[in-house]
Amino acid sequence: MKSGPILLVEDDVDDQEFITDALQMLGVKNHIEIFDNGQKALDFLLNSDQQPFIILSDVNLPIMNGLQLKAEIQQNQYLRNKAIPFIFLSTSADSKAVYEAFELSVQGFFVKENTYDGIQQQLRQIIEYWKNCRHPNFTE
Questions:
Q1: Residue 119 neighbours by CB under 8 Å, 6+ apart
Q2: Is 4 left (phi over 0), alpha (psi -120 to 50) or beta?
């Protein structure tokens, strides 16, 4: 559902707070689940019957990076059928990572803005797009 949780997969505590605050200032009502590595996010997805609204993930993460997380989701029929929009929000976007992300059918790849206004604008665009987009699991 579009009211499902936003999964934020980010290991930097400052970025976690920055993104969470920006989402709250935008008036986003979705609960935000924060994971500091891809394995924790994957475990949540595999053990939850919730339909997350969106996944916002960094690329560079400990234990399981964002690209590995997206690959695991793609390889798992249960998770693939959830069709959760997966967006990379990373501090770096080298061409190899961007190419690999799109090979994994990612729905977007953004370099994190480093100002509060900038990150708010990015998040506003992402959230508004997915709130208005037709989606196989969003029937509302």
A1: 18, 19, 22, 112, 113
A2: beta
Cα–Cα dist 22/45, whole Å:
24
In a domain, 59, yes or no: yes
For 66-94, what is each residue's pLDDT tens digit?
999 999 999 999 999 999 999 999 987 78
Q: Give the H or E element holding residue 116.
A: helix 116-132
Tell me whether residue 123 is in a domain. yes
Task: Name the pTM for this structure.
Answer: 0.94
66-75 and 95-103 are packed helices; what angle lies between their axes, rounded to 10 degrees? 10
Report the CATH number at residue 100: 3.40.50.2300
